[in-house]
Amino acid sequence: MDPHISMSIIDSIKGAIARRLFSCSYLPDSLTLWSITGIYDTLGTSIQSYHQKRLRHILQHAVDTTTYWHRVLPATGINVRTITLEQFQRIPILDRETLKHNPDEILANNLRKRSVTTITTSGSSGVPLKIYADDVFLKKRILIHRHYLQKVLHLNGTNNFANLRNRTHTMILGHHVNLLTDDLASEVSWLADNVQAACGPLFNLMNFARRLNKLNIKLNLDFVVSCAEFLSPTDRKYMEKTFNCLVYDQYSNVEVGLMAFECPLRNGFHVNTANIFLEIVDKRGMPVQNGEIGRILVTAFDNRAMPLIRYDTADLGQWMEGVCPCNLKTPRLIFEGRSSNVLKLPHGREYYLKHLMSPLDIKFGEIIEKFQFLQKSREHLILRIIPSAKYKNGDEVAIRKTLIGRMVRARAIDDGGAFDIRIEKVGAIENFPSGKARLFVSAL
């Protein structure tokens, strides 16, 4: 069977499954069933077999239509028509610098210009990117909106919500509210009648929640889905109280879209195995063992405009062992944060910043409005904080003791060694232009 016809059949099956599933009222269950039970059970195949077929299709397309992959893939000596998952690991990793400097070489030459959309990333990783996406890929990314989520409020712009990047989204939602200037009080009736859930970057969700609280507006939503930023326990708790529902986290990026998501148990991130192939590798580019932290690589099956193969997301993660109690058999991962959010310490040691964020949020969340780490040398770390009204003189001693103690117990630094943390109280901390929180600034 022709591979393109075969994939069309698969897409039709997925569409039929989605239409049935998205008539229900619970997004996480729907996504979960569609991602694994629906597609694999219907096709009568395993995840590994399915991935192998889809990888062969996107690799062949990449060789045939792009300058970059036409040069790189044949040099590996691998036959992309018969490639195995083990051989796939020999393909060179596509890093962000290569993508930044060679976007047109990775653009497929067999698509009409009007069918390709240019998307830019926020640059929160330190490397802003230009991504090309075809219409089919974009439509698949909003499949859920077409079948069920007409009543989901999207907070995707820095200032606007329900005002997304392409006409398809706008057509679906059809209502625009400016988060900063519009009178939300006058929109209460519309929100109550038309919004069942909300999703978007954490920054926008929190702004929306704070404004609702300030205006004493109550919304009873079915669920909220946060993405694009680290969702702390404090922020999750705040939004759950404001929106009177559970808040779920989602691992996604502009380049690929949805990569992993929380199930109803919120016990790790289930990989979106229907649409991507996700790897976690060590510094040599080889698969990590369970419990080891490594770089997250992703291969997207659906974007034929710009085939991203073994793309380094600049994120860190580790695999979780065992099957989730929700009984899904998809792989699960723990997201460890950006690869750039790593402290460089004396004696060549490193420490993941995420492990300092947790105690700040859980233990000191009520006295710290916002924080940012600044590192200028291996021996010194500055913690900049915006104190809340509950902050008292002397609290910085407890904060410093907690952070230093955590690093000593992890053997990242020596007890009584040269490393020190200084705390600075400030009035403001600047975000990225996109609105994302800038949690770490390193001069190293």
Protein described:
The chain has 444 residues and is an alpha/beta fold. It has 14 helices and 20 strands. The strands form five sheets. It has a ten-stranded mixed beta sheet with strand order 3-6-7-8-9-10-14-13-12-11. Strands 19-18-17-20 form a four-stranded mixed beta sheet, with helices on one face. Strands 1-2 form a two-stranded antiparallel sheet. It is globular. Residues 1-39, 144-149 and 157-177 have low confidence and may be disordered. It comes from Candidatus Lloydbacteria bacterium RIFCSPHIGHO2_02_FULL_50_13. This is AMP-dependent synthetase/ligase domain-containing protein.
Short note summarizing the structure:
This protein is of the alpha/beta class and 444 residues long. The chain contains 14 helices and 20 strands. The protein has two domains: 1-339, Rossmann fold; 342-442, GMP Synthetase, Chain A, domain 3, CATH 3.30.300.
Q: What is the CATH C level class of the largest domain, in words?
A: Alpha Beta
| Main sheet specs | 10 strands, mixed
How many structural domains in the coordinates? Answer: 2
Number of DSSP-assigned strands: 20
Shape: globular
Give the fraction of residues assigned to helices. Answer: 25-40%
Share of β-strand residues = 15-25%
Radius of gyration: 23 Å
Distance between the termini: 54 Å
